[in-house]
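ok trying again, last paste got cut off:
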Amino acid sequence: MFDSDRGSADITLCIFPHLREFIAIDARDDRAGGPAIISLSISNVLGEDFYASVEQEFSKLIRRHGVGFLELMGIPQQVEAVVRANSLKRIIAELGINNVDDSNEPTSTVGVLFFTGPLLVFEPVQLREAISELFGKRLSNQALDQLQEQLLDLMEKERKSISDTTKQDLAGLISGKSGPYVTIWESSGK
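nice, full thing came through this time. structure:
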């Protein structure tokens, strides 16, 4: 079901784009207390340290000397990379992992699963098969049960959030609050 040729990651983040919570599966063999499933809140990650770091790096991006117009057009992708890197650093810190860039020690691998589209419609049996394939050798059956329960709960919340957002978008379209027009269908005229 998943590409397992690369092996499983030491830490896997299960991200639900419309929710303020996510799950980290820390399956490192050398973790104190053994592998764990940790629920985290975005508010713990997006603190003042995060914002200050992103602002500092963004300032460096736009204030570089000799930047041409074409390079300025690439700033959105660069900002996305800055946000992603700083988010990952904060998550790793939140998990209590000492991530020293200059260290000669091997660092943990981090995988990210975005629960969107097909992943959101997994039936419990399919989900169990997938998490067993990903973590079965590293997590106990009790931990797999806990992970499945938490994922099913967050998947339901994500689906509800998407549904609520769609309803708000439609209400905005009908009431005219979403702007002067919205293109529902477009023909090229050919």
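cool. Residues 11-174 form one domain. Residues 1-6, 186-190 have pLDDT under 50 and may be disordered.
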